Structures are given as structure tokens and as C-alpha cells.
């Protein structure tokens, strides 16, 4: 039932974006910077060298520095190479706001002067049509120029840069300019690294959302350049730094060496962020980075499936572990909210698909069930039900009690034979596929999305697969034909492919093999 996973895969990028909100840079007590949110396909650059004194042993927030440049030896541009390169011709720079304003003002004055000139009036008397057309063209050009100025100000002089000291903001403007406007990877890398060096020189907290956001932006840029290995290295470096900070913080809290003024301040107004609040922010960002790393490692350009699986396992265990800790211990001073149910559900679902890819459907099932409990989107509920149906249909035969899902089955399994056990799994698969079909048809109006239609088509194909496995070939053919008709109606190629494959298998004698 490959299409069941296909519909979920169409949903996963949105989930990834929801998760990325936790990893998006933001100023303390302020909203996230838009440019970093938009670029957040999660990634980052070199580690900060060494490890300074732990932030907890002082009364203020210091930082860790990692031991080596993440990009050293990479396939993209190298930091040492950039610094040691011979002097290049002076590159074009982003225009300053004074230059932009002067150019626009001069153009506007010229247009007004032209409108007042005697020559224009004389030309209008002799050739009114041509003059009107020319004026319309000039006005249109001026409007386009003004719009371009607005875009330039939005791109290079927007609010996000004011969160940094001016030297850092200037380096970031140049980095973005050479990343997107006048692409030059070597110069872009040079200015990204200059921005990080200035952050270090100016003693900015390397675990602030602003500084981590620069590293994330660099990794996103590397991914855009298809330098996937370097993008993964930069994210791994940032993830390692974040995890090390959390470990040291927890160790010092346990030993009682963490400063009380940052753990439980008597006057909250004097502390912008408690250590527990900072831990929540960094840990949540670590989970989001880990999910993004799993996405990178599973990309066809890398195919590091085991690493992708490890990152997803860590993300899910960390997310659920923190939820359990808060339930058992309660909230600490200034700790703030944890991941949303949608974000946790997205991580659970991604790990479920990772187990599916390893044909470990018995391990995927509990994850899909938990994701279903957390899901609040009507159409995606149907997608998760299809995933559950798929996993039940392909569930391996295990000893009684060994399958995590055995406790969720309706009938007792103590005396079940292998045939009875298989039949019960297929019956469960049929129920969940039917439920998916029903739930996909319910949402109407604004609540109904393309995901509902696709989930409905997939459920029909799944029902056809299950019918073929139970030997009901007539019903299987009927379900496949309905799935094809609906998939063609909504333009859903994956549904057509799955159902047509099922029909071909029926015509070749023997039941259809259910696919994940």
C-alpha cells in the first residue's frame, strides 16, 4: 500500500515547517526574524572553537565553542581558503539606503521637470497621442522602480538586521546579497563566517536564537547549493553544541553548582531568561535540527538511512521524554511551553515511516497510533488511518505478546494460531482502511483539503489490496476501479499507480502483495 505513505509524505514538509518554528531564530521576548524563518530548512556553519567556561558557573550567559571548522575539508568553499585567497577585485556591494533614495529622488525630479517643460507642452500640442503614451510609460517605469526600492529595503534593510550590532548586520547583508542577488559562493561564505567571527568578538551568546540562526541559515544555503554533506556537517556541529550545553546545565543543576539567580530569580524582571527557559529553547531547537538532519540523510543524494533513523529516534525519545519529565516534576521557573502536539505528532509519524522503510511494521504501528492521538487536522487523521491500515496488513507474525500492538487488538490472542493471527491483522487493516475512507469523506467547506481527497483514493486502493490478500478478488477489482476513477478525477497520480498495479497483479493470478 505504497500510496498510503505517499499521501503522508506530501504532508510531511508542512510538519517539518511546524517543527522548524522551534528552531527558528528569535530575539528573547520578541517574535522570530522573518528572513530566518523563511530560510529554515534547518542547517548551519562551522562550530565555535574550544569550550569556554560553562555558562552556569558564572552569573551570566557565556558560551561554548566547538573545536573545529565544520566546513574544513568540505566540497564547498573552505574558510581557510577564503581567508588565504589572493586579493580579488572589489566586488559589487548591496546599495546603501542613501544611494537608493538619491537615485529615486533624482528620477522623480527629472520626471516632474519634464512634465513642466515648454518642450513637453509643445510636443503635446503637435503629437498628443505619442506624448500621452510616453508619459504613461514613464509613470509605469517610476512605479516599478519604486516597487523595486521597497523590495530592496525589505530584503537588505528589514527589521531582522536591527537585532544585530551594525557590523554583524552589514556582514549578513553582504552574505545574503552574494547568496541570492548576485550569487558568489566564495564571497557569500566569507561574509557568513565574518558575521560569526564578529558575534564571537562582540561576546554575543552563541546559543541565542540570533547567532544559532546564522549557522542555520548557512546550512540552508549549503543545501540550496546541493552541498548536502556540508549542510549536514554544519547541522551536526550545531546539534552537538546544543546537546553539550543541555548536558552541562543538567549536570550543574544536579550538583547544585548552577547559579540560583538564573535558576530561580527572586526578581524575574532582572532576568530575561532563566536557565530552565534557555534549556527549553535549546532542547526544542535540538529536536527540530535532529528531524531536519533525518530529512537530509534520507535524501536521495545522501542515502544515509541508518543515520536518518538514529536522528529520528533521538528526536522522538527526547520530545516524549521531556513531556514525561514535565508531567512528573511539573514546570520549573521560567521553563515555558514545550513542543506542540502537531510538532510531536510530526516527529512520531516520520519515525513510523522510517520503521516502515525497514519493514518493521510492528514498530511503526505504535508510532502511528500515538501520532493519531495528537493529530487535530481532520484530513490528516484519514492519512494516519491509512498508514495504520498499511502497517496492519504487513504486520509480521510474532510470538504472542512480542508485538507492541497486541494489546490493542479486540480479541484475546493466547491460543491464536499463525493463520488466526494473520486473519486478525488483516481484519484490523480492513477496519482502519474503512475508517480512513469514512473520515476522508466527512470534512466539508474550508476544512476539506486536497489531502482528504487523496486519502479517500488511497483508502479505496488499500481496501483493494486487503481484499486480494484475503482472496476476495471480485471486491478487490471493484475497489481498485473505484480508486482509479477517483484518482483520475482529482489528478492524483500516486493513487492511479497503486490501483493499476493492483489490477495488474489480479490479472496475473494470485493475490496482490501489499506494499508499504
TrEMBL record:
GO molecular function, one term: misfolded protein binding
Pfam family name, one: TPR_7
UniProt-listed SMART domains: TPR
Record's keyword annotation contains Transport: no
Keywords on record: Membrane, Transmembrane, Transmembrane helix
Region (Disordered): 66-94
Transmembrane regions listed in the UniProt entry: 131-158
Domain of life: Eukaryota
Chain intervals with Polar residues compositional bias: 66-80
Database matches in InterPro entries: Mrg3-like, TPR-like_helical_dom_sf, TPR_rpt
GO CC annotations, alphabetized: i-AAA complex
Name of the protein described by the UniProt record: TPR domain-containing protein
Organism the protein comes from: Lasiosphaeria ovina
Amino acid at each position: 500500500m505504497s500510496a498510503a505513505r505517499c499521501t503522508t509524505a506530501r504532508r510531511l514538509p508542512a510538519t517539518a515547517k511546524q517543527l522548524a518554528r522551534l528552531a527558528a531564530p528569535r530575539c528573547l521576548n520578541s517574535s522570530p526574524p522573518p528572513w530566518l524563518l523563511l530560510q529554515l530548512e534547518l542547517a548551519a556553519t562551522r562550530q565555535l572553537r574550544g569550550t569556554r567556561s560553562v555558562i552556569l558557573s558564572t552569573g551570566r550567559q557565556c558560551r561554548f565553542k566547538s573545536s573545529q571548522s565544520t566546513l574544513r575539508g568540505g566540497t564547498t568553499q573552505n574558510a581557510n581558503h577564503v581567508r588565504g585567497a589572493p586579493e580579488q577585485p572589489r566586488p559589487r556591494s548591496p546599495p546603501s539606503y542613501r544611494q537608493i533614495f538619491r537615485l529615486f529622488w533624482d528620477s522623480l525630479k527629472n520626471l516632474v521637470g519634464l512634465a513642466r517643460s515648454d518642450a513637453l507642452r509643445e510636443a503635446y500640442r503637435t503629437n498628443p497621442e505619442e506624448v500621452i503614451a510616453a508619459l504613461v510609460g514613464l509613470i509605469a517605469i517610476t512605479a516599478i522602480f519604486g516597487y523595486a526600492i521597497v523590495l530592496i529595503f525589505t530584503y537588505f534593510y528589514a527589521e531582522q538586521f536591527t537585532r544585530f550590532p551594525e557590523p554583524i548586520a552589514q556582514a549578513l547583508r553582504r552574505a545574503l546579497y552574494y547568496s541570492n542577488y548576485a550569487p558568489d559562493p566564495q564571497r557569500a561564505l566569507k561574509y557568513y563566517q565574518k558575521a560569526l567571527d564578529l558575534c564571537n568578538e562582540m561576546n554575543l551568546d552563541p546559543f541565542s536564537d540570533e547567532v544559532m540562526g546564522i549557522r542555520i541559515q548557512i546550512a540552508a544555503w549549503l543545501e540550496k547549493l546541493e552541498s548536502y554533506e556540508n549542510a549536514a556537517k554544519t547541522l551536526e556541529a550545531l546539534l552537538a553544541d546544543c546537546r553539550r550545553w543541555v548536558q552541562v546545565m543538567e549536570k550543574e543543576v544536579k550538583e547544585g553548582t548552577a547559579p540560583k539567580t538564573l535558576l530561580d530569580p527572586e526578581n524575574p524582571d532582572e532576568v530575561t531568561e532563566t536557565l530552565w527557559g534557555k534549556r527549553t529553547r535549546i532542547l526544542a531547537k535540538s529536536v527540530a535540527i535532529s528531524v531536519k538532519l533525518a530529512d537530509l540523510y534520507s535524501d536521495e543524494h545522501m542515502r544515509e538511512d541508518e543515520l536518518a533513523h538514529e536522528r529520528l529516534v533521538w528526536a522522538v525519545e527526547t520530545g516524549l521524554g521531556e513531556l514525561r519529565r514535565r508531567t512528573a516534576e511539573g514546570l520549573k521557573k521560567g521553563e515555558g511551553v514545550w513542543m506542540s502536539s502537531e510538532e510531536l505528532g510530526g516527529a512520531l509519524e516520520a519515525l513510523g515511516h522510517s520503521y516502515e522503510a525497514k519493514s518493521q511494521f510492528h514498530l511503526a504501528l505504535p508510532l502511528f497510533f500515538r501520532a493519531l492521538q495528537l493529530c487535530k487536522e481532520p484530513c490528516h487523521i484519514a492519512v494516519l488511518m491509512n498508514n495504520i491500515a498499511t502497517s496492519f496488513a504487513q504486520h509480521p507474525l510474532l510470538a504472542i505478546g512480542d508485538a507492541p500492538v497486541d494489546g490493542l487488538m479486540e480479541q484475546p490472542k493466547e491460543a491464536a494460531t499463525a493463520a488466526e493471527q494473520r486473519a486478525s491483522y488483516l481484519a484490523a487493516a480492513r477496519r482502519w482502511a474503512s475508517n480512513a475512507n469514512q473520515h476522508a469523506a466527512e470534512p466539508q467547506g474550508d476544512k476539506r483539503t486536497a489531502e482528504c481527497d487523496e486519502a479517500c483514493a488511497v483508502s479505496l486502493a488499500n481496501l483493494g489490496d486487503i481484499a486480494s490478500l484475503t482472496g476476495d478478488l471480485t471486491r478487490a477489482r471493484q475497489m481498485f476501479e473505484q480508486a482509479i476513477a477517483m484518482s483520475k478525477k482529482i489528478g492524483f497520480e500516486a493513487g492511479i499507480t497503486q490501483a493499476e498495479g493492483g489490477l495488474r497483479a489480479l490479472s496475473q493470478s494470485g493475490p496482490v502483495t501489499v506494499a508499504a
